[in-house]
Design a protein that fits this description.
The chain is α+β, with helices and mostly antiparallel strands and 316 residues long. The chain contains eight helices and twelve strands. The chain has one domain: 4-Layer Sandwich (Glutamine Phosphoribosylpyrophosphate, subunit 1, domain 1), CATH 3.60.20. The chain has an eight-stranded mixed beta sheet with strand order 4-3-2-6-5-1-11-12. Strands 7-8-9-10 form a four-stranded antiparallel beta sheet. Helix 7 packs across helix 8.
Length: 316
């Protein structure tokens, strides 16, 4: 009988401009509660011997159902005043993956991404076909206005009021909030999942790194599982998620060193802003970011440690 691996789970709720004196105590407490609920959902699966893939999807599903993050219910508005959702999942044991973009109606995109992971005829699907296939397969669909929130509408209206409405709104004016999770299960398998609404006032049809395997999401049992958050264009150009794995596998770097290089050197030198969460095959966790803050939390059975963070100091 093989030795049981100690599980680890790490999540993020987005990186960006998170200023201490501008985040109300009420909002802060609600966000922390959601992060804890997300960790609890994923840990419940891992503690029972469930798969890393199921755990990361359960953790992300909780955050998609919250209005406090830019995924699912709290997704931002695009330039046409609609919500276009994207997500991806990867299984480190098999290297199978599922990804989708530009969904207008899937309530929980991460769960549909997991369905795609188990198919052999598609990895990535986008546009109207996403919602049609999701409906055929029994995934809950909602009207696009289900994703409406007053906070995101105010952000979009501000973006629309700017004189230069031909480019993406400068990320420093708005909070981000892509969500994601990485896990190591008791069978020694890794998985990663990411979900987002993209950038406020984004072009219709624009796809970010969260939907692209190797850019915003990556998992490989030999190395690590990674989920990213930030300005997608830079994470795509730097293929950040898979770069962490490659630096470990081919460069011999530790998880922490590889993730640090990918965030603080590789994509940062392009002008990128954001962060990632990652776990390696030994259950080590790292959560680097080069923005003003990043919502994140973790639990590590091996070290018997857990924590919730927004800035550098633990919140619990």
């Amino acid at each position: 009988m093989s030795k049981k691996t100690k599980y680890s789970l790490c999540i993020h709720g987005g990186a960006g401009v998170i200023i201490k004196n501008k985040l109300s105590t009420t909002d802060k407490n609600l966000i922390i509660a959601d992060l804890k609920a997300s960790i609890a959902a994923g840990e419940n699966i891992l503690n029972k011997g469930g798969s890393a893939t199921d755990a990361v999807c359960a953790a992300v599903e909780v955050l998609e159902n919250s209005m406090h993050f830019n995924a699912g219910k709290g997704a931002v508005y695009n330039r046409n005043g609609e919500h276009l959702l994207e997500a991806s999942v990867m299984d480190g044991a098999t290297l199978k993956a599922g990804a989708l973009a530009n969904s207008k109606r899937i309530k929980n995109p991460v769960l549909f991404a997991k369905t795609l992971l188990n198919r052999d005829d598609v990895v990535f699907i986008s546009g109207d076909s996403v919602d049609a296939l999701a409906g055929e397969l029994g995934h809950p669909l909602v009207d696009n206005n289900y994703f409406d929130t007053s906070f995101r509408k105010e952000q979009w209206e501000f973006a629309q009021s700017l004189s230069d409405n031909t480019t993406f709104l400068d990320h420093t004016n708005l909070k981000m909030g892509t969500v994601g999770a990485v896990a190591l299960d008791t069978h020694g398998n890794l998985a990663a999942a990411t979900s987002t609404g993209g950038m406020t006032n984004k072009l219709d049809g624009r796809i970010g790194d969260s939907a692209i395997i190797g850019c915003g999401t990556y998992a490989k049992n030999k190395t690590c599982a990674v989920s990213c958050t930030g300005i997608g264009e830079f994470f795509m150009r730097a293929t950040v998620a898979s770069t962490v794995s490659h630096l470990m596998e081919y460069g011999g770097l530790s998880l922490e060193a590889a993730a640090h290089q990918a965030i603080h050197e590789h994509q940062a030198k392009l002008g990128g802003d954001g962060g990632l969460v990652a776990i390696d095959a030994q259950g080590n966790i790292t959560m680097p970011y080069n923005s003003q803050g990043m919502y994140r939390a973790f639990v590590n059975e091996g070290s018997n440690k857990r924590g919730v963070f927004i800035w550098d100091e633990a919140e619990n």
